[in-house]
Amino acid sequence: MQPYKHSWRAIAMRLIALFALVHLFVLEGFAQEIRKTSEGFNELVAPNMRLITDLEIDSELMQWPVYLEQATEQWKRVFAPPPAKVGSLAPVVHLVGDRRRWEQSGLLSQVPRFEDGFQLGDQLYVVEQTSVYYRRLLFLHEATHWIMYRWQGGAGSPWLMEGMADLFGTHRFDQARLVLGYYPATPEEVPGWGRLRLIKETIEQKSAPKLSAIVGFPDMKQQRMERYSWSWAACTFLMRHPELADDFQAIYRGNLDYGMTSSQRFFQAMESQWGGLSLRWRCFVDELGFGMDVPRSSLLLSDINLSEISQKQIHSSVAADRGWQAVYGPVPPGTKLQIQASGRFVVRQLASGANWESEAAGVSVEYHRGMPLGCLMGVWAEVEGEQPSEPWIPIRIGKEALLESPSRPAVLLLRINEPAAGLVDNQGSLDIAIR
Q1: Which of 177, 287, 296, 326 lies 20 to 30 Å from 303, alpha-carbon distance?
Q2: Where do the domains of the chain lie, and which CATH numbers do they carry?
């Protein structure tokens, strides 16, 4: 009987070894299989993707097929692909830990050397990161390139390709569901993500590109990370601005290539309204920071005719819960305006239920831009030429001020003094009289 006992032991050992090579799981409706490749890498196989990596396939990586499925539903709403192109797509994702091992295996031979990630056809490549969040962001970034390639034939000009991928790569979770295109509220939410920091640095160094230069980026090789950051900013601005979103949608939907065609289409579509676009863009740049509510902070120009000079006395209002607001103009050079502001508004709602109320002079409990919180402030926005990508230098107005317009036709913009992240809890408005 001894040989019989040994044979069962040998069979059991073989079964254990086999189970070590192939594991079957069902995760949120996805049947998944983990096995070894011929190169000795780990491979996760799901109905909608394959993941190959030299790293351990942990619980986070096992969620990637789920994330891809949730992301695909959101991409459908954004890009509106023809039904014929929406089928069973399954990319192969390569997560690179030890690059030398990958190079020795030959699995990187078909792609150029890349720093963080790369997409070639249905093959996606992601380099391991110190931040789990940023690694996932890179996966969604490359997957956005892939889905645009699959649905639209390309991803557009350099700024559009990288800006859209960065926009949809930036994400959060809402009740365990992935949400793409998230604008971060705090740096802690997006570890490893440095777009706003790089934008701030280029502004401080006086090297920030104008919007026309961003749309005209010929490539992303020079000043790579700065160009990625400004491309993300441009796509975020255009997609979320209430008066620009439809025009931008016409650019990124439909067929795309990898040349400058989409940039040319953008310039043609915006040629007649470039002055207004430039003003809106500078107001967006002025507000850029964590927690910014882009639609609430957007400069609206639907009621302003930038080509018609105005010198009428008016009564207007400035909403406390919005960013820069165009209230008067354009006016000729050297125009003097007497501005008076009255009324009260809520500038801060506290967790205790109490409210901070303010008049146009502001409240000195807190300061922003060197002026009291809630203080009425303004800028002259010239309407000829393109605005630079830099913050405004505001004028303190308070309850009353006498202003003189600059040497070129300009529009008067007003707002209360508060960071864009703090506008959401404001209530009320100021009455403005201009003569």
Answers
A1: 287
A2: 18-272 (1.10.390), 303-434 (2.60.120.430)
